[in-house]
Design brief:
Oligomer: heterotrimer
Order of helices and strands of chain C: HHEHEHEHEEHEHEHEHEHEHEEH
CATH architecture of chain A: Orthogonal Bundle
Order of helices and strands of chain A: HHHHHHHEHEEHHHHEHHH
CATH superfamily of the largest domain in chain C: Response regulator
Number of strands of chain A: 4
Helix content of chain C: 40-55%
CATH topology of the largest domain in chain C: Rossmann fold
Structural class of chain C: alpha/beta
CATH class of chain A: Mainly Alpha
Distance between the termini of chain A: 28 Å
Radius of gyration of chain C: 23 Å
Chains: A mainly alpha (335), B alpha/beta (500), C alpha/beta (349)
CATH architecture of the largest domain in chain C: 3-Layer(aba) Sandwich
Number of domains of chain C: 2
Strand content of chain C: 15-25%
Radius of gyration of chain A: 21 Å
Number of helices of chain C: 12
Largest interface: A-C, 68 and 56 residues
Strand order of the largest sheet of chain A: 1-4
Structural class of chain A: mainly alpha
Chain lengths: 335, 500, 349
């Protein structure tokens, strides 16, 4: 009797909730995403503190600066949701970027160079995946090895020199070109985010990614090919790093061996700020987008306010910790 | 109450967001008394005990210890007051020694370093007093679960506990270890220690408890001296209705068609020389003690762990089993023993858990999973299996153990299995849900699904199975039909091993 | 409850930023007045206070801090406003930093590029926005610069070779001896050009001086210490060490000390050490007699000169030099106390 009462009560609560959801999904989105609120507050703050912040130019500028980190962070989100980590992506960005620059400079068609760059990323992901799935090694150490090795490849390949491909027209288009007033680089990133979001939240593969990160053994016992899914996420992360390399080379007009240093760490920070749990099983692509934007809004905002660079790292560090704290506080009692 | 109780809780209420977990509950226990605390999962037992061990603070109500009103602030405070809890999942540090585990709360020190000599002497003395034959220098990980439990008891007593709460202490130990545990409980009783004993096993309640207290839906549902209560009276209090038939009548006939044949299967150091047949629509029980190799055998048959010898024949054809994908595509399904760690995805919703193994079937264009079709399938199972969940979107960990188990079974029903392996399907599940799960199993068998059921509960395996295999030490030591089996015969095979 | 906590956290975060931004106005000294910002960069010079954007490649090395100080001093002297960014050694961040400056509407950009190629897109963007760019210490492989100021790295390499050669002649009576070269970060222009000047000079003028070891020490003291320790083990007879910068030579001096191979200047066994840059540590070591010499640059001067060029070009509307080598000179025990050195002028932070 009382049982029925309880379930009736619960279902009515649900009904109210669903109604509220329909009524004001924006409000709900805000309530659910405290980090988004933090991002908006940050934007509000910068737009009152500087006159330039809200200008279209500047907003496009922020998106443009978020592009490479964004693409890399997408792959990182997949990896971290499976309870893994990929420390190699920053170096892989450099390798891919170097290869593309080198091949373009030696006169190869851009399309071949780009394919080689992307494949280099894919290959790095396969190597990571191989050691992690077949040799049961910890992702941290495997990808740490990749980080060092790939960085070295860039130095060997270019003899530590920067390779300039500033004049290549297609790369120039990638760098400066616009479609409907929106820079190409931003369009690429937006497409990647949409596709990644679709795959993660709508497909069988996406569901399997969550399942593995949440409970690997239960996933295996449910017939999920855990090793293949794990391999796939590292391949995705590597390939996206390869794409990041292309974007880096386009953006810098050159392949430089030191490109993407610390990029992996900033990407991890963005992913975690966005609510993805380092212990796996939880996270969204949308959250990662918010995390990436938060970091880049802060970077640009601090520059616009002319905050001394001595303090910028301190502020960034504190913001990363606080933003992650917001997420951990709001999820503490949810579980 | 003629004499003041050692521990008394009055009018305890506790509300969690959306749930009234406890509503005006009273509880008391005297010195040297063993009180069985009963209730279906979700009835409020664990909340009450968590209040007693200082993890939760009650919204209202008082706690009296030795006639004095106390307020418990945290687990340490509760331990110091003399209340210890031994959780179902033991809380030991596996890589430390027995002695270190017992005294982890107050390790003796000499200057800055650990006084190992004193530590081991203290532990040895304590274990000696209790009559436990445990080497204080042994590493906890190397001990059996039963022995680990004794270490927990020793640890509890090292606090000078007056009240010890035991939460399902026998759920993971053998019959012999259970007998040993009861001896220990009796000797603690003589020392005047009060024990709150939580269990789902009726036989144990009658054997060890002086008195029972039953909770239902967060309220007191009755109780009394255990010798004055009949089992069906207790069950009546538990479920709020009389449960006449726990094991449903067997319907339908087992066919002679062999769907699965295992020939001389072996895995080095785990099991060897296993051969048996499984017929269509048959319920084949696997009995035996913990660690007899049953779970490991099923994991190998299901493709989780590789075999080192032998053959697996499905429908008269020999098959290579390399992974769970191979067996699942053949119509196998496994409901594992460890529900939380192996059975479910904890932060997935009920719906997503149900569709996990068959997700590809819900995918349409662009591999998009149809949320609508998922919801329909989940809702069907929720109503058919009577899963108590607000709706399919509820996270599975918010359900009671019995309902979680039903969700896991639903996951496999969705794959329409021909061979369903159930490993301890009713462990830690309350009686009401147990009975429902039995009905589901019977129904499936009647529809022609072949079922292998591992169970350590003799009444269950005897009541449910058409045929029973007994394992000991990685070998099959006995086979009985439903008609000829008795608990004694099973125990003989399970404990002796070797000859049938 | 948790909502409140998280919202409070978000506010605290923004508050923190506000606090830091108000604190920083003193950081740039008198330069940061509240000038009305102007979107049109080229018009800014006439209508209000001229706004300079300075993008540093890195600030963990004194030399680059000195560049910044020079620009700051110049801006203060001329009453210009200064916006400053630090790319922390990341070429991509430097591009972003400069994009932000363009947004901010600076009138001129002074940049110390992290990479001569990777800086090009940023310079191109500034060109498009009509903002003149002056490069310090490193140039740009393309794009239009108003001016480029640097020290002649090849010349400094040559000077180092000459110094070592003369010292060896004093000791052995001829240009002979065993020399170790500790290279800078491979791929950097400084390492390339200093190495080039040094090695060409040795090959052409002093063919009997042997380079017995050549290893990269990455402009890094700790790396230099390790590398030099290994070289000392492998080579019992070393006459001189040339470090591509002072961090390399300071590291090498420590290694020599720790290996027990240090001998006073007058001793025949003394290992001659010369570096480049003229950092504080090197100047102190020269005073202490642990290092023989360094070839000092003049980064503060370079920064001030850049601001002078800004004034000439944007206010006085005069033509400025497109390429300038700022001076460099040898610092030894003889002139270390008398010469005006950037190392001693650098404000301690």
């Amino acid at each position: 009797m009382s049982d029925q009462g309880a379930s009736l009560h619960e279902s009515s609560v649900e009904a109210v909730k669903r109604k509220a959801e329909q009524k004001s999904s924006v409000l709900l989105l805000l309530l659910k995403n405290k980090v988004l609120v933090a991002l908006l507050l940050l934007c509000l703050f910068f737009s009152t503190a500087t006159e330039q912040f809200l200008r279209i130019d500047n907003i496009l500028n922020i998106f443009l600066q978020s592009a490479i980190m964004g693409v890399v962070a997408i792959g990182m989100t997949y990896v971290i949701i499976t309870a893994g980590i990929d420390l190699g992506v920053g170096s892989v960005v450099a390798v891919s970027g170097m290869f593309i620059a080198g091949m373009v400079q030696s006169g190869m068609p851009l399309i071949v160079a780009v394919l080689v760059g992307l494949l280099a990323g894919t290959l790095s992901g396969m190597i990571n995946g191989f050691f992690i799935t077949r040799c049961n090694m910890a992702p941290f150490i495997v990808t740490l090895g990749m980080m060092a090795a790939a960085r070295s490849v860039t130095l060997v390949y270019s003899d530590a020199q920067t390779i300039s491909v500033y004049k290549d027209p297609t790369l120039q288009f990638l760098r400066m070109g616009q479609i409907a007033g929106i820079p190409v680089m931003i369009l690429i990133t937006v497409v990647m985010f949409l596709a990644a979001h679709y795959v993660l939240s709508n497909t069988v593969f996406g569901r399997h990614v969550y399942a593995i990160g949440s409970n690997k053994k239960a996933a295996e016992l449910s017939g999920i090919n855990v090793k293949r899914v794990q391999m796939m996420v590292y391949v995705i992360a590597g390939t996206l790093a390869g794409l990041g390399g292309l974007m880096m080379t386009a953006r810098l007009g050159s392949g430089t061996p030191l490109a993407g240093s610390n990029l992996e760490l900033m990407a991890i920070a963005a992913v975690v700020i966005g609510g993805t749990s380092l212990s796996g099983g939880r996270g969204t692509i949308f959250g990662t987008l918010v995390g990436v934007l938060l970091i880049n809004v802060l970077n640009t905002g601090m520059n616009l306010m002319n905050i001394s660079s001595h303090y910028q790292g301190l502020i960034m560090g504190i913001v990363i910790i606080f933003a992650a704290l917001i997420d951990s506080v709001s999820n503490k009692k949810a579980g | 109450m003629e004499k003041a109780a050692l521990l008394k809780m009055t009018g305890i209420s506790k509300t969690f967001p959306g749930v009234k977990a406890l509503d005006n509950v009273d509880f008391s226990i005297n010195e040297g008394e063993v009180v069985g605390l009963l209730g279906e999962n979700g009835a409020g037992k664990s909340t009450l005990m968590k209040i007693l061990s200082g993890i939760y603070t009650p919204d209202s109500g008082d706690i009296w210890l030795e006639g004095k009103k106390i307020v418990l602030r945290g687990t340490k405070h509760s331990q110091r007051a003399g209340i210890s809890i031994i959780h179902q999942e033991l809380n030991l540090l596996p890589h430390l020694t027995v002695a270190e585990n017992i005294y982890i709360h107050s390790l003796p020190r000499k200057g800055f370093s650990l006084d190992k000599k004193r530590l081991f002497l203290d532990a040895e003395r304590l274990l000696g007093e209790l009559g436990f034959e445990i080497n204080p220098k042994a590493i906890v990980d190397d001990l059996t679960v039963g022995t680990q439990q004794m270490v927990e008891i020793a640890k509890a007593l090292s606090f000078q506990s007056k009240v010890i709460i035991m939460d399902e202490p026998t759920s993971a130990i053998t019959e012999q270890e259970t007998a040993k545990l009861f001896e220990i409980i009796r000797s603690l009783k003589e020392k005047g220690i009060a024990i709150i004993y939580i269990s789902h096993r009726m036989e144990e309640i009658y054997e060890i408890c002086d008195r029972v207290v039953v909770l239902r839906d967060g309220c007191n549902a009755g109780g009394g001296l255990s010798k004055e209560l009949k089992p069906d009276q207790i069950v009546g209090m538990l479920v709020g209705r009389e449960l006449t038939q726990i094991f449903p009548k067997r319907q339908g006939r087992v066919s002679q068609e062999v769907v699965l044949e295992i020939k001389n299967l072996g895995r080095k150091g785990v099991f060897e020389n296993i051969s048996f047949q499984l017929h269509k629509g048959e319920i084949l029980g696997f009995s035996g003690l913990m660690g007899s190799g049953r779970t490991e055998l099923m994991e190998s048959i299901f493709g989780v762990e590789p075999i080192s010898s032998g053959e697996i024949w499905i429908d008269g054809k020999q098959k290579k089993v390399r992974s769970t994908r191979d067996t699942i595509s053949q119509g196998f399904a496994l409901v594992p023993e460890d529900r939380r760690q192996h059975g479910m995805i904890g932060n997935f919703s009920v719906t997503h858990n149900i569709t996990l193994a068959t997700l590809k079937r819900f995918a349409g264009r662009f591999r998009k999973v149809s949320a609508r079709r998922e919801r329909e399938a989940a809702d069907r199972h929720i109503s058919e299996l009577r899963i108590k969940s607000p709706h399919g979107g509820t996270v599975i960990t918010n359900l009671s153990g019995g309902n979680q188990q039903k969700v896991i079974i639903a996951k496999w029903l969705e794959s329409k299995p021909r061979i369903l392996i159930l490993d301890e399907p009713t462990r830690g599940i309350d009686i009401g849900a147990k009975s429902e799960i039995y009905q589901i199993i019977q129904q499936l068998a009647a529809q022609g699904t072949s079922i292998i059921m591992i169970s350590s509960e003799l009444p269950e395996v005897i009541g449910m199975s058409d045929r029973i295999l007994v394992m000991a030490d990685g070998r099959i030591t006995g086979e009985f039909t439903r008609e000829e089996v008795t608990p004694e015969k099973i125990m003989l095979c399970a404990t002796k091993g070797g000859e049938v | 409850m948790k909502k409140i906590i998280s919202l409070l956290t978000a506010f605290a975060l923004v508050g923190l930023l506000a606090a830091c931004s108000s604190g920083q106005s003193t950081e740039t000294g008198g330069t940061s007045g509240s000038a009305p910002s102007d979107n049109n960069a080229s018009a800014g010079a006439e209508t209000g206070k001229l706004k300079i954007g300075m993008s540093n490649s890195i600030l963990s090395i004194d030399f680059f801090v000195a560049l910044k100080q020079g620009v700051e001093q110049g801006a203060e002297k001329n009453g210009f406003e200064l916006i400053h960014t630090n790319a922390n050694g990341d070429a991509a961040k430097q591009v972003s930093d400069i994009e932000d400056m363009i947004q901010k509407g600076v009138n001129v950009i002074i940049v110390n590029p992290q990479d001569v190629d990777a800086i090009v897109p940023a310079i191109e963007k500034a060109n498009q926005a009509g903002i003149p760019v002056i490069a310090l210490d490193r140039g740009a492989s393309a794009g239009t610069l108003l001016s480029f100021l640097e020290t002649d790295n090849v010349e400094m390499g040559r000077k180092a070779a000459d110094y070592i050669a003369e010292k060896l002649k004093e000791r052995h009576g001829d240009y002979v001896g065993n020399v170790v070269e500790l290279q800078g970060l491979l791929g950097s222009t400084a390492a390339r050009d200093r190495g080039k000047g040094f090695n060409e000079q040795i090959e052409q003028k002093y063919p009997n001086i042997k380079i017995i070891a050549r290893q990269a020490a990455d402009f890094n003291q700790e790396k230099a210490l390790n590398v030099m320790t290994n070289i000392l083990q492998a080579n019992p007879q070393i006459d001189a060490v040339f470090g591509h910068n002072d961090d390399n030579t300071v590291g090498a001096a420590n290694a020599i000390d720790q290996a027990g191979r240090f001998k006073p200047l007058e001793d025949k066994e003394h290992i001659i050490i010369i570096g480049i840059d003229g950092t504080r540590q090197a100047v102190q070591a020269i005073k202490d007699g642990r290092i023989d010499a360094t070839i000092s640059q003049v980064p503060i001067e370079m920064g001030e000169m850049a601001v002078d060029y800004v004034k000439q070009a944007l206010i006085d509307k005069k033509q400025v030099e497109a390429h300038t080598y700022t001076r460099n000179f040898l610092v030894t025990k003889e002139n270390v106390d008398t010469e005006k050195l950037w190392a001693t002028e650098l404000k301690s932070n």
